[in-house]
Amino acid sequence: MLKDKISLLAKEIHANVVENRRHLHANPELSFHEYQTSAYVAQKLDELGIKYQKMANTGLVAMIKGEKPSDAVVALRADMDALPIVEANEVPYKSKNSGVMHACGHDAHTSSLLGTAKILTELKNEFGGTIKLIFQPAEEKLPGGASMMIEEGVLENPKPDAVIGQHVMPLIEAGQVGFRSGKYMASTDEIYVTVHGKGGHGAQPQQNIDPVLITSHIIVALQQIISRVADPKTPSVLSFGKVIANGATNVIPNEVYLEGTFRTMDEDWRARAHAKMKKMAEGIAEAMGGSCDFNIVRGYPFLINEEKLTAEVRAYAEDYLGKENVLDLDIWMAAEDFAYYSQVSDACFYRLGTGNKERGITSSVHTPTFDVDEESLKLSTGLMAYIALKQLGN
């Protein structure tokens, strides 16, 4: 059976996948600077005899064509960039690049897709159709490598019928995966605000226009857009994580700097919220005698898993792993630039369990102690190969 062949191959190449993952983990590179990572992936594709082309500077797209006749095409995506985090793990494969760490599992994603490529290459004479392998840069930084690769034609010549991606999740134990159909992850926008006033002595507020007070009113008032303007059925989050008021105990500064994020799952509401936030902030500042520069940098769209495709992929996962190892996911207000693929193609983005409570592998992504249970890399390679071939109709 195809499933048994893939499972056996996944076990046979596991040590190689772990080796690749550890190399990538020890040599992380930030978004748009994945030069050595890209070269390493290219070398591994060369070893497999898989042709590829470069895109988006450090991205790669490769193709594996089955030897049986079929025009079906499916794309598999992995991201390659790391985060500006100092790794706290004491492991043999600890990051060698100071202040840079694979704290979101992209090393696991890339090594897994290389493993999947090896499995598919071994089975070329047993399937029909074409599989695109997308090794994408810069998932972690706007404008996102996905948008750049799409602009450069990664979804053309040939056009895939579906795009499928997987992402590590330490909250799920290794050996399991999670799915959600429909809207799954949020859009993300960055907010940058400068509130201008008139600084002076804190003991003489009547002579000043206090930008600290104005900013506090803006922060509180903007939350009312979420609680009183947004449809309660539409998830929305507005959070401010950076406030700089460079005064002192008795010094009111001239201006206050503010940064935040806005996330939702409805594009029409997203646009209306932008306009309302800007108007409210500027109005409050003006009413209190100051002024406000309110800028929104539009980020990734929301991610939607096409329902028919997701149902099919979930069924393949249940067949490969057993129903008891396929979980339901809730909406996730984090963002992912895989969302760009989901906006222009049928797409399915699922979660790969990488946690292991018994071994203490529980740290969240984007933390200095994040790691994965490498046993999950048997599943990540085999399952994606099985999904791809089943989706092609084999």
Brief summary of the model shown:
The chain contains 10 helices and 16 strands. The chain is an alpha/beta fold and about 400 residues long.
Give the helix/strand layout.
Elements (H helix, E strand, L loop, with lengths): L1 H11 L1 H13 L8 H14 L3 E4 L3 E7 L2 E12 L26 H17 L5 E9 L8 H7 L10 E12 L3 E3 L2 E4 L3 E8 L3 E2 L9 H19 L6 E9 L6 E2 L2 E10 L2 H21 L3 E8 L4 E3 L1 H15 L4 E3 L10 H6 L2 E9 L20 H16 L3
Parallel strand pairs: 3-4, 3-5, 5-16, 6-15
Antiparallel strand pairs: 1-2, 2-4, 6-16, 7-14, 8-12, 8-13, 9-11, 10-12
Helical/strand content category: alpha/beta
In CATH, the homologous superfamily of the largest domain goes by the name Zn peptidases
Largest sheet: 8 strands, mixed
Backbone CA Rg: 24 Å
Question: What helical percentage do the residues reach?
Answer: 25-40%
* Arithmetic mean of pLDDT: 97
Distance between the termini: 11 Å
| Main sheet strand line-up | 1-2-4-3-5-16-6-15
Order of helices and strands: HHHEEEHEHEEEEEHEEEHEEHEHEH
Count of all domains: 2
CATH class call of the largest domain: Alpha Beta
**What is the count of β-strands?**
16
| Contiguous uncertain segments of 5+ residues | none
Counting H and I runs of at least 4 residues, what is the number of helices?
A: 10
| CATH second-level architecture of the largest domain | 3-Layer(aba) Sandwich
Oligomer: single chain
Tell me the strand percentage band. Answer: 25-35%
The shape is elongated
CATH topology of the largest domain: Aminopeptidase
